[in-house]
Amino acid sequence: MTTKAALTSQHIIEISAPIFNKNGYAATSISDITKATGLTKGAIYGNFKNKEELAYAAFKYMVKSLISPLSNHLRESSSPIKKLYLITDFYRNYYPFSKQLGGCPILNIGVDANHSNSELLQRVREVIQRIQDQLCSIIENGIDAGEISTNINAMQYAKRIDTMIQGAIFMTHTLNDNYYMEDTMNLIDELIDLKLKI
Amino acid sequence: MTTKAALTSQHIIEISAPIFNKNGYAATSISDITKATGLTKGAIYGNFKNKEELAYAAFKYMVKSLISPLSNHLRESSSPIKKLYLITDFYRNYYPFSKQLGGCPILNIGVDANHSNSELLQRVREVIQRIQDQLCSIIENGIDAGEISTNINAMQYAKRIDTMIQGAIFMTHTLNDNYYMEDTMNLIDELIDLKLKI
DNA sequence: TTTTTAATATACCGATTGGTATATTTTAAT
DNA sequence: ATTAAAATATACCAATCGGTATATTAAAAA
């Protein structure tokens, strides 16, 4: 059990993740990471094959840091329709939370990697897909449970909600104004009430 | 009339704008621009004070390239409510159009500049503000003209529509799937029908 | 305690970075 | 055609880039 290196790896990931998230892949240098961690290149390259592998690990960690609190939050109710409200509830507090981690990794890395790092872009796409699949499942469960109207397209509304959330994240972060997040969550709640809820 | 340098400046701007738009500020090098333009550093620095000034000019040009077609499109009707439909109509064709220019500059530069170039970020914010103000004016004109319900908050809906559009732009570009753009425009049309239209 | 191995630090590599000073060329004025 | 001025090309700068080879230190095994 190589405990020392594993701890160092984790430390490097945790420190570098917000840096990659803020600056993007190309604009983050190894020296940014050595400065922030207090370690040297030897420690970095002893634990990661190259900058790219570190960026993948950092992105994975950052997504986990932001998604697992959401998953936990959704456990507060087993009712699908209430889970939907728990989602908007979660995102009402998302701004200060994500800001502290350097922003939303899906937005930041999605934009950053789009014309440069196709491997990283692919990972962003997979995360978005997973989120939408999970959202779709909640809606489908709501239909099965008789909480949500049968004549709606679950995946369509999963994508609509996800798209609105991402728009709000962009606006709130870019304009440094939480209004967009709050009002968009109100709008999504209205959408749930009006179109989904029976 | 220094015609020669003005033409060269314009040429540099037009060529470098999509590069900055795709790569972001820090990840775009002067050599990227000399390669693309076929010019040398002497021509670049003879016409622009530094990389930053060129990036500003490139952003300004890119915004103009994407916004003025929208302005022109809106001239097709003088009715405020029809202008709203013309907006969703415009964005239904936005993906191939913006893709050819390296993406949406508001989204790309907004994310890119957020934690690095505060001057550039400020310019993105001003563009967003201008768009929302104009959208708000259209809604207000609609209220005055009796086309739009009097008991709605014009700026609130301007921001809601803008937020949804930006979310759709992000999703469509990141997932390379125009569905998000199309469906979001349908959703906005529904919103106009249901909440705004009298 | 000694030896072996794992982990980190240091020194260096060629390539590239933004930017500048100067040389050269192109354009315009005389 | 000659001269003056504007515009562009070239050569160079220190600093930094990602990455590697090796030296040193820290941990584990003997």
From TrEMBL, chains A, B:
Residues 6-66 form the HTH tetR-type domain. Residues 29-48 bind DNA. Keywords: DNA-binding, Transcription, Transcription regulation. The keyword Metal-binding does not apply. Transmembrane segments: none annotated. It comes from the Bacteria. This is TetR/AcrR family transcriptional regulator. It comes from Postechiella marina.
